[in-house]
Amino acid sequence: MDRRARDRFTELLKPVARAAQAYARHLAWHRNDVEDILQTALLNASRKFGDYAEGTSFKAWLLQFVTYAAFNANRRHEQIDAHELMADTEALDRLTAVEVLTHEVAYAELLQAPERVVGQLGQEVQEAVRALPAKRRSIFLLRAIGELSYREIADVLTVPVGTVMGELWRARKELREALCEYAQQRGRLREGGGTHVV
Amino acid sequence: MSCDEIRRWVSPYLDSELDPHTNFEIAQHLEACAACRQVFEAERRLEASMAASLVTDPQTQTAWDRAVHRVLAGGVVRPRRWHVAVAAVALFLGLVGGWRGWIMARQDLVRSALRNHQEYLANRMTLDVQSSSPEAAEAFFVNKLPFPVRCPRHLGDQGIRLIGARLCHLKQVPVAYLLYHVDSRPISVFLLDTDDLGQFWQAAALGPPDSPQGYRFGRSGVVTVRSAHGVVCAVGEVPQAALERIVASYAFERT
Lengths: 198, 255
Known about the structure:
By secondary structure, chain A is mainly α.
């Protein structure tokens, strides 16, 4: 990478730094891997910077490298496979419950004051995201943190757009379900009062 | 659309991913329906709250700064001269390949591999094992093929990521199929035993052992090389040099 390319690369990094950091942080299974993931992603991105097409989304392009680096880092931990397999199976078993989630009172109460509930469950939100299967988690994070379009997410993960839509839908359902459970366990619901939203 | 139907679209609507017609229909419904409007607004706030809770932290910020410093300020990645050499080799192979292109355009092994690769791209083929581990891929092929499969260990260091493997057939000949990604672009690798080469027309046109042969079919490139034990064939929509690196690594592993 020559000086000009390096300057341009550095310039493009600045506005996407926070998204890349947050994405790596929440995609990595182990906190200790985050720095490795970021370094690997940046190194590979800098080496491939010649392939980046000006005018296209640099954020999407960079997050692709973060995704690969994170997936590779996560694979080093054997227990993850078992965990994700379990999460997948549980998700299948839960489909019926998820279907009826919108009719649950807890969900309605969550929607009354989402900022308050999420604010009080900050750590649990992160745990719920971490509990999602790898691809689902990545798709959710690319949308929530990266604010990428479905097409861009599909390109980053080389999956069809339909898969992105489906996985995003499942991720959101599972997260809402988890939030309701956490909130009920901790008595965080029914504190704000107000009108139900269903 | 009824309220239930409208609410099914809440995610793609809030993500601005709907077609204009559906988007308009939902917007109209929301104007008229206070209950749905309240749900959509609450969903938007919930999603925004969750996104806001998934922020970075000072520790990650520090890790980022260090990584940027190492990659850019500390260790400038210099142009690697071997790239020039590889490009020259690719050009040479392209020129040499040109005169025999009319033969190879009909070469059934290359065509079969290309067709198989395109089936993967069209999502018509699934992997038997999904793993980035060369050992896992090798273990999968044990007792499934009459020859041992050895996968290179260090392709990942070059950004060539193993995705998985499957047993497939080219002209009824069982071959090992391995899928790699380079910058999210898939590369199919086929391993054949020497004993099976007779099944393919003009197999001799694959060239002498350890001499990679490259071909282009539109955007797709194919590189083959004969090793001591068989043939390695790589197909993908990537620069020829990447395909050559892969087949060379495989040929080396199999010797």
